[in-house]
Amino acid sequence: SQQGEEDPQALSIQEGENATMNCSYKTSINNLQWYRQNSGRGLVHLILIRSNEREKHSGRLRVTLDTSKKSSSLLITASRAADTASYFCATAEKNSGYALNFGKGTSLLVTP
Amino acid sequence: GAGVSQSPSNKVTEKGKDVELRCDPISGHTALYWYRQSLGQGLEFLIYFQGNSAPDKSGLPSDRFSAERTGGSVSTLTIQRTQQEDSAVYLCASSSARTSGGALTGELFFGEGSRLTVL
After folding, report:
1. What's the half-sphere exposure (Cβ side, CA atoms, 13 Å) at B101?
2. What is the mean pLDDT of chain B?
3. Which of A19, A35, A55, A111 has the greatest number of C-beta atoms within 10 Å?
4. B18 touches chain A (CB under 8 A)
5. Could you say which DSSP state residue A33 is in?
């Protein structure tokens, strides 16, 4: 089943600008993960944030998690053309075993 | 190999034919997942295997779909009597399957996918 819903579905920005993508989910989670997918390729893990964490950084990526609102955001700062890809959030629900449910993704286009 | 390997990378078949898709996970990873991604869509969970436990087949869309994992390593996804709506990219992923609080805590490593086109 798909739990995460990303917003917006598509985002177009210029190099140097920041990109913000949001993810909403419905149930209690153990952690939330963000993945990136270049066109025609597999997904690559970016970052994992646990339910007891509120913010996490990795390079130019900043992820926040608000469990009271059941939402997360992914911020890419100083975007580059190479950041053009689709970005997916995935949730590991509590007591769901090894399941990881993905949303429909946000398609990001960064133009030079 | 170092990563998750899937074959074939592309498969074109006629409606009604059976197809087999193969996934070779990262060595030592006990959890293996199959997802389906239709054009421009998100990932639809199909099935996962974890060690010797019974697989979670809750995502398989019909009884035409089946999967097995032999020897705890390589997995094969079989689609019988293919239909045009089965056309999609089938993605395999593996994980070291760490859990906490009854949920997966590790990341998934994905293969490049098998693109299936049913004519």
Report:
1. 12
2. 92
3. A35
4. no
5. E
